[in-house]
Amino acid sequence: MNSRDNLIYMANQIARNFATLDDAAAANAIAAHIVKYWDPRMRVKIIDSLEQNESKLLPVSRNAVAVLRDTHQSDAP
Amino acid sequence: MGYEPQKDFGTPASRSEKTITLTIDGEKINVPEGTSVMRAAAEMDTHIPKLCATDNIKSFGSCRLCLVEIDDVRGTPASCTTPVANGMAVHTQTPKLQKLRKGVMELYISDHPLDCLTCSANNDCELQDEAAAVGLRDVRYGYEGENHLGLETDSSNPYFDFDPSKCIACSRCVRACDEVQGTYALTIEGRGFGSMVSAGTPIDDFMSSECVSCGACVQACPTATLQEKSVKEIGLPDKSVITTCAYCGVGCTFRAEMRGEQLVRMVPWKDGKANRGHSCVKGRFAWGYANHKERILNPMIRESIDQPWREVSWEEAFSHAASEIQRIQEKYGTRSVGGITSSRCTNEETFLVQKLIRAGFHNNNVDTCARVCHSPTGYGLKTTFGTSAGTQDFDSVEQSDVMLVIGANPTDAHPVFASRMKKRLREGAKLIVIDPRRIDLVRMPHVEAAHHLPLQPGTNVAVLTSLAHVIVTEGLVDEAFIRERCDWDEYQDWARFVSDESHSPEHLEAITKVPAEELRRAARLYATGGKSAIYYGLGVTEHSQGSSTVMAIANLAMATGNIGRPGVGVNPLRGQNNVQGACDMGSFPHELSGYRHVSDRATRKLFEDDWGVTLDPEPGLRIPNMLDAAVDGEFKALYVQGEDILQSDPNTKHVAAGLEAMECVIVHDLFLNETANYAHIFLPGSTFLEKDGTFTNAERRIQLVRKVMEPMNGLQDWEVTQELARAMGLDWNYAHPSQIMDEVARLTPTFAGVSFDRLGELGSIQWPANDATPDGTPVMHETGFVRGKGKFVVTDYVPTDEKTGPRFPLLLTTGRILSQYNVGAQTRRTENSRWHEEDILEMHPSDAENRGLKTGDWTNLASRSGETTLRLLVTDRVAPGVVYTTFHHPATQANVVTTEFSDWATNCPEYKVTAVQISPSNGPSDWQEDYEAHSERARRIEIPESAE
Ligand code: SF4
Ligand code: SF4
Ligand code: SF4
Ligand code: FES
């Protein structure tokens, strides 16, 4: 698995563990998790995957990455 | 300090709070009720001669040497078996007693080789001391009668000898093995004069017996019958220093007994609060690696990993390392470098490494080997309770009524604590084991689990949720506790979730393979059996849902009110000696010491003001992320202290590719480990015997590590990191590790009350220690959770993506064995290898038969990541469909087959579940052969010209 696919896999895996939450709450929880634990370069890459319309991102992961991009992302790295 | 053995009070201390007053030889003394007369006398430094009593086992009353006279009591009772009573008047020295004692002693001595002057225990023998104490000068019976003097010594154990000719049949060894260790390896065979200690096997030697070489019998033996070989070789010690074992998270404390600069033996310290005078084969005996010939003592560098190593001066090594890091940062950016701290090193060393990275490398790319073991504990317990640590002290187990052990194998991995568990189980506490494998605790002498739930690997969350289902739907929750201590709304959400029929044990049985009725009974026992404690290990954390499992465990404890008092709690059994400490010290890329997120401005400011630098507010890379980034060409330099990521981390080929892609790998270790095969700079490390510092064990107990000899490499590990920092321009001037701990205390509220002086005074401190709890905190969350209200977290079962199929139909799970430690870098370099010469694959008879395999066969173990070969053991300890192995030997490289799947929250690797196939094999795999050749090449050291 290359590193971009790996990040998508990781985002989806987090999403699956928040599956009992409703969509909005899940998106926020996943985004918060990523902000807390992912290094800025990893975040840039996952946002980039969203922008490239990466098909492997689950719908709930997409929402989460959108939240990440819109509310959390500073201009790192 | 001169040498004196630790004082022996003869019988164990009483825990009673009631006081009894008596007089001994006319002197008044107050002692707790239940104390023996012998111990009461010892408390006032009055020695009553004794042979069969010692203070870590119950008195037995067989030698009759300890007789006393008591006013108004007939005869001469044995002081070791007579409890004190109010108003009692005891006489320890009377002419009558002297005569009786002398007579007893005479009988013992007449059957004893009188080679005192040449005996290795001369001056360290209780028989000799007591003979002198009773004034025995001559033996009336002569030495010609029937005796045991011709018996042969059993030298089969690599660390101690058994010389039966010196045995006085006091049975202290037998009782120590039973009561302290709980192994029941020894018996006294025969009666009267014919009584002999026996290891009970046909060849009747220690090595072929059930003996696990814990050393309890050796410590208990009053004569030279059972004695460390090292005493024979080196001689008796002349001084001792108290220090802490550097192997596992139990944190046993020892008296390192020295003769000059040479370590003679490690004797468990009876005042150690973690071990209470007990030990296991690793801490007690396996320290020979410290002067193993393969230890590297000089710094070395090389331009590329295909070159041989070249020895250089420390100065050259430091300046080269510093300039490489600076060069790489200039070329690839500030975040292109990082480091890894070690759970094997001291708190102070770990703190310095993370400080070097944050303050010197100017990023947060620091991680620790806890990433691959207990990072889910950090996440799970912080989320639910508010702090990343176990809730109890080890003493708590003495009050437990029920123990639930999940994903842990204490008799192998935490042996001294396991002995304490077994003791409590023999007293009647009940045991539930949740483990795919029938670990020893399930059934052993005098211990049997009430329930063993042999779940399918990877289904922990499903099993825990169905336990919760039973507890909630059968009305077994502690509602008062939940209402008072937890968030009630969150509880209700959780209770609704677990009550759903889809979480019933019957429904989940198809997935978990745990019989529903057995699971229901286990749930009822945990919820209603009295004080219930959960102990867990890496079988919980090393899964794709490791963090969820930890939270599911916390949910169970909160739902049943099993938190916040002795006897209950949630207890991660930490693997390495200082995993807890390494995490506490801020080794994770998102946290500063004391588990405070790097994005927290106020915390950062505290450190910035103290360190005089600006800190990066963004979390750094975790170990797997570092390796991914390296393969992507974005991460170029790594400083690894005391960890062998190539052998210990999953998917060896991926780790190797990551390391190979870096331009500067600095390994700081005792040996040229497997990671060093990919390193450019090698900084030699020092052993725990050569350094000062502290370790923090699994019960949050901070204990001093004391230097007993000079570092063979010239520098303690903290000094190496300090010099590297100075080469990078940081103005560090620590003169002693205590100053580092002072800095930790200054910057970390939970450590505010910790200092080397306080540790010296109290022996140990369990954090949090601050103004509110100056002596530390044995049990956490007593009146409220650290986070305020306890948080119930819904933990939905998400099956791992690592699935069996036609190509890989079996599930591999991995574990530990008693005599070896982790990647084995130390234990493999000791005689411990006699118990475990190679890693073995365990397989159920039905799976073996299908493949035409039998015990001893070479087998090929293959997963989608890679393949290796191992020898087979056919056993029904593992369930059909499951195979098991350890990863102590680099030749096996079990991690060649483990995958990159990991915990969703922390990236802790999923070591415990890999889909594999096993087939017959006739030798090492291609990878093993290539790797062996590569290793040999990578370890070459250039001989300096002058030495040729
Ligand atoms: S070393 Fe330990 S296990 Fe072995 S016989 Fe002695 S007490 Fe028992
Ligand atoms: S071996 Fe030592 S402890 Fe055991 S019975 Fe003999 S003298 Fe006592
Ligand atoms: S139980 Fe652990 S800490 Fe204690 S002696 Fe054994 S390895 Fe060392
Ligand atoms: S020490 Fe009391 S009877 Fe042996």
Radius of gyration of chain B: 29 Å
Instruction: Name the average pLDDT of chain A.
Output: 87
Radius of gyration of chain A, rounded?
11 Å
Number of domains of chain A: 1
CA-based shape of chain A = globular
Strand content of chain A: under 5%
Please report the distance between the alpha carbons of the first and last residues of chain A: 24 Å
- The beta-strand count of chain A equals 0
Query: Helicity range of the residues of chain B?
Result: 25-40%
Q: In the CATH scheme, what's the topology name of the largest domain in chain B?
A: Rossmann fold
Number of domains of chain B: 5
Please count the beta strands of chain B (DSSP E, at least 2 residues each): 36
What ranges of chain B have pLDDT less than 50 throughout 5 or more consecutive residues? Answer: none
The major pleated sheet of chain A works out as:
none
Protein name (chain A): Formate dehydrogenase subunit delta
InterPro entries (chain A): Formate_DH_dsu (IPR021074)
Pfam families (chain A): FdsD (PF11390)
Protein name (chain B): Formate dehydrogenase alpha subunit
Kindly describe this structure.
- The complex is a heterodimer of chains A (77) and B (948).
- Chain A is an all-alpha fold.
- Chain A has one domain (3-75).
- Chain A is 73% helix and 0% strand.
- Chain A has helices at 3-17, 23-37, 40-51, 59-72.
- Chain B is of the alpha/beta class.
- Chain B has five domains: 19-134, Ubiquitin-like (UB roll); 160-291, ADC-like domains (N-terminal domain of TfIIb, Single Sheet), CATH 2.20.25; 313-373 and 578-695 and 712-747, Rossmann fold (3-Layer(aba) Sandwich), CATH 3.40.50; 375-572, 3-Layer(aba) Sandwich (Dimethylsulfoxide Reductase, domain 2); 810-937, Beta Barrel (Barwin-like endoglucanases), CATH 2.40.40.20.
- In chain B, 29% of the residues lie in helices and 16% in strands.
- Chain B contains 29 helices and 36 strands.
- Chain B has a seven-stranded mixed β-sheet, covered by helices on one side.
- In chain B, helix 13 runs parallel beside helix 19.
- The model of chain B has no long low-confidence stretch (mean pLDDT 91).
- Chains A and B meet through helix 1, helix 2 and helix 3 of A and helix 22 of B.
- FE2/S2 (inorganic) cluster binds next to loops of chain B.
